Amino acid sequence: MHAPPLVAFAGGACPASAASSLSPWLASLRPAIVAAPARLLWFRRGALRLEAKAAWRATGGGRGPRVPAKGAVLASYMGAEEVVGPLSLLDEEELILHIRKERDNGKLPADVAINLEELYYNYRNAVLQNGDPNAYEIMLSNMTALFDRVLLDVQNPFTFPPYHKAVREPFDYYMFGQNYIRPLVDFRNSYVGNISLFHDMEEKLHQGHNVVLMSNHQTEADPAIIALLLEKTNPWISENIVYVAGDRVVTDPLCKPFSMGRNLICVYSKKHMNDFPELIEMKRRSNTRSLKEMALLLRGGSQLIWIAPSGGRDRPNPSTGEWYPANETRWYRQL
Predict the structure, then answer these.
(1) Nearest 5 degrees, angle CA 177-CA 327-CA 320?
(2) In this structure, is residue 1 part of a structural domain?
(3) How many Å apart are CA 291 and CA 305, to the nearest integer?
(4) CA atoms lying within 13 Å on the CB side of residue 312
(5) How far is C-alpha 127 from the geometric centre of its chain's CA atoms?
(6) Which domain CATH number covers 217?
(7) Residue ranges in the chain assigned as alpha helix (H)
(8) What is the per-residue pLDDT across 37-86, written as a single tens digit (0 to 9) for each?
(9) 135-155 and 92-104 helices cross at what angle (nearest 10)?
(10) Burial level of 117, CB count in 10 A (0-12/13-18/19+)?
(11) Is residue 299 part of a domain?
(12) Would residue 251 count as lying in a domain?
């Protein structure tokens, strides 16, 4: 049985022939998701524009206009109505005391407790800058929910199969991840460029075709940011995209609750394949199973798969200090 055709290869530059007749801003036919951090709300409007232009240029879009390009859509900052997380809301002092209590009782490993407490303060400081009058309550609710999920997984660890489907019930891990990242994004200054491409993708997907998205990987929040900025215009894509995930996001106790809410093809990075010689064979067998699962998905059609081929984030040029997209050539050589 042959796999359905691959009809969209997003993330690459458009052909030179097409680009030559267009302005630098519109010449790139790649979809661009530009998410502004919530903290930018406090900056001057001019600074916001400079940040947005810099972000666009980093994606290869060239010099941008003063407003989002034609074909871009502003993302909505209105969240989903569903509320996730524990029913009882702790205050800050109670939450920190609970974390330390579970550590002292041996139910939470010391390193996990330390990282969770550090995450709390980092998350709190970031969310409180977004200008929402309810920011503190939102932050506390989200962190209480995360603490609850981390503690549950430590006591009863979840094991990810080669192909993992998002867990939506009895607890909706997808909405948990969406609502946790939501207050970190400044939706009023974030937008999706060339939104029509996503409409075309969805149409092809419903026809049974497969689509592969290739992009640079910035943070572990990439899946949530992609889904958040498309949840109003293309909710089907937001909920059905499959991410190729490295082993850390399916083993780290603080990452696992977020990963459980995404559709994942789980792989071991070639870069770290030899870190522990006794695990090399196990990792290879696992990667083989993951490739077989991906092949089965593609044969069935209507699959949207997101891959970060360089497996890492953009890095600054050592000599100039300027940031540039991670080199994808290395990944192709490894295939």
Answers:
(1) 105
(2) no
(3) 13
(4) 15
(5) 18
(6) 3.40.1130.10
(7) 16-19, 24-27, 45-58, 92-104, 110-127, 135-155, 173-181, 195-206, 222-230, 235-240, 256-259, 280-300, 329-334
(8) 654 333 333 333 333 334 434 444 443 333 333 344 444 444 433 443 34
(9) 10
(10) middle
(11) yes
(12) yes
* Residue 212, amino acid: V
User: How many structural domains compose the chain?
Assistant: 1
Instruction: Tell me the β-bridge partners of 210.
Output: 6
Does the pLDDT value for residue 154 go beyond 60? yes
Domain that holds residue 256: 6-334
What are 247-292's pLDDT values in tens digits? Answer: 888 999 999 999 999 999 999 888 778 888 888 899 899 889 999 9
Q: How many CB atoms lie within 10 A of CB 77?
A: 17
215: left (phi > 0), else alpha (psi -120 to 50), else beta? beta
157 CA to centre of own chain:
23
- φ, ψ of residue 304 to 5 degrees: the values are -115, 115
